[in-house]
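Section 5.1 Outputs to date
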Amino acid sequence: MKKILLVDDHNIVRQGLRNLIELESDLEVTGEAASGLEAIKLVRSNQYDAIVMDIAMPDKNGVDTLHDLRHVAPELPVLILSGYGEEQYALNLMRSGCKGYLSKDADSEEIIKAIRTVANGKRYISAELAELMTNELSNPSEKLLHETLSDREFQVFFKLASGLSATEIGEELCISVKTVSTYRTRIMEKMSLKTNADLTYYAIKNQLIS
């Protein structure tokens, strides 16, 4: 029996996933978290075979939580189940270590298939993600600007675009303000942008933040 941790700030979403998973004889939900911080706490004290996690959450978003999980439990597979489409986040988060990315619009059979796949230690590649990956290999120059960022750069980009200051980002990521500034400079150069307002506009335009 594979033990699953559900991480989503909406109780109705967690309940729906729990009801879906409980229909399966080889899967069971043994933990629920409404935030990234709560998820990290549960992972430190319990054993799970996979995490099913949203991106948009209070106190610690899915991008940050995924990054922290790589240090807390590097072998624990994470499936991102998000309201954002694959074209927005999937490639960056797959590079950041998640084992699969799926839109919440996917049908129940595919969601169960994805959970079972990552719980068994394998990557789950949806048809949409497979197409994105193929396009990236075939036409690397056509990648979206944020897809050119490294794991850490994307994390800092996300925070800058959300309006956090260099000091706030440094405190959250436990790095110096100077290091944050270095990342910011790299991000601006890679994305050909000049100001934090440009970053925010880009993120809103590409539906990376609301």
